[in-house]
Amino acid sequence: MANGYKLQIVAAVIIFLLTIHNLYLKSELVSLLNIVKTEQIRTNLGDHQKQSHSVLIYNRIPKTGSTSFMNVAYELYKLNNFRVVGLHVSHFKHQLTTGDQRSLSQNMSQWSDLPSLYHGHFAYFDPKRVGADLTPLYINMVRNPLERLVSHYYFLRYGDDVLVKKVRAKEGDTTTFDECVAQQLSPDCDPKRMWIQIPFFCGMSAQCWEPGSEWALAQAKTNLVSRFLVVGVTEQFETFIEVLEELLPQYFTGATKFLQDSGKAHIKHTRHKDPLSEKTIDKMKKTRVWKLENDFYNFALKQFNSVKTSTLEQKSLKTAFYNYEKVRPK
Q1: Which residues, listed in sequence order, are joined to residue 228 by a DSSP beta bridge?
Q2: Confidence (pTM)
Q3: Is the pLDDT of residue 127 over 70?
Q4: Which residues make Cβ contacts (< 8 Å) with residue 139, sequence separation at least 6?
Q5: Residues catalogued as catalytic
Q6: Rounded to whole angstroms, how far apart are CA atoms 164 and 141?
Q7: Are the C-beta atoms of residues 276 and 177 closer than 8 Å to each other?
Q8: Average pLDDT over residues 68-73
Q9: What are the residue ranges of helices labelled H in the chain?
């Protein structure tokens, strides 16, 4: 009887110990699963953060100083360890076909071993719209619309002071812009040729490229403030670079110093331009296209000045303008 009682006690102790052991194992398993889950969340967050900064797109507008800008990028890519990829759009000029948008977006999302800056003369597009799991950062730069058109007009005829031996499309044509406008001698001085900055921000939609479209202007403004990290202006090129160095140090660390040391803020200039008459300026400013493009330029300028002021103020104070408080649980 005593032996049976002892066996019951031993059995009870063993059961108790096994129960404690099982509870311990379950507790350890739960802890392990929580650790794995936490690490997975951190990994996913890290991957998301990496992806959100891994693709930078500069859909550069012709004759806005984009060559000078890209000279900075090509100077810094080794120092800051990023890739630079130029895109040349051929048959549809500045518009990518839907198929090209899709394949390009997929390539950008998969080619992620290095942060990459893509640049080219193409309009804005959203990779998510064509099915790619990619949210790139967009940047750009705009210029006074009439000055941009005049610069382009003379560039076609005289070229620049860098590629001096390259034969331009209208080489030998000495017609001034004033004469062209007065006599309507060439489509190169047609006010509709100013219609480019709005569509570059508006996008690939057909209506974006209809000169004088109010809808395109509204869409361009919306995209500028919601889809672009920052948009500079040609007239404040060096300040734009300074702002980018603060906002995107992964790409632009050392950019300001490079410009100061090299003196290459503007690396090429159109070789010849005649000044415009007041009559020509007045005539161009009466057109619907100029009014909308100028509206957009002033909108972009105001936005840039706001971003510039806050960014450079923060740079001088060396502090964030926010802090965490009332965190529960601690």
Answers
A1: 138
A2: 0.81
A3: yes
A4: 56, 57, 58, 228, 229, 230, 231, 232, 244, 248
A5: 119, 121
A6: 25
A7: yes
A8: 96
A9: 2-54, 66-80, 98-110, 145-158, 177-183, 197-202, 214-227, 237-247, 249-252, 255-262, 278-285, 288-317
C-alpha closest to that of 233 among 246, 223, 243: 243
At position 250, the amino acid (one-letter code) is Q
**Residues 6 or more apart whose Cβ sits within 8 Å of residue 246:** 311, 312, 314, 315
pLDDT digits (tens, 9 = 90+) for 238-267: 999 999 999 999 999 999 999 999 887 776
- Residues recorded for the chain: 330
Paired tokens of 106: 């997929």
Q: How far is CA 51 from the centre of its chain?
A: 14
CA 10 – CA 194 distance, rounded (Å): 95
Q: Tokens in use for 280?
A: 């020509």
Residue 260 tokens read as 């100061």
CB 197 within 8 A of CB 184: no
Structure tokens at 249: 């140090």
Architecture of domain 51-305: 3-Layer(aba) Sandwich (3.40)
Question: CA 50, 315, 59 angle in degrees (round to 5)?
Answer: 50
Q: Which residue is associated with the tokens 């840039």?
A: 304
The whole-chain average pLDDT of the chain stands at 87
Residue boundaries of the structural domains of the chain: 51-305
Amino acid at 13: V
CB 166 within 8 A of CB 257: no
What are the structure tokens assigned to 123, written together? 């309009």
For residue 19, give both structure tokens. 């129960």
Kindly report, residue by residue over 291-308, the tens digit of the pLDDT: 999 999 999 999 999 999
Cα separation of 28 and 22, whole Å? Answer: 10
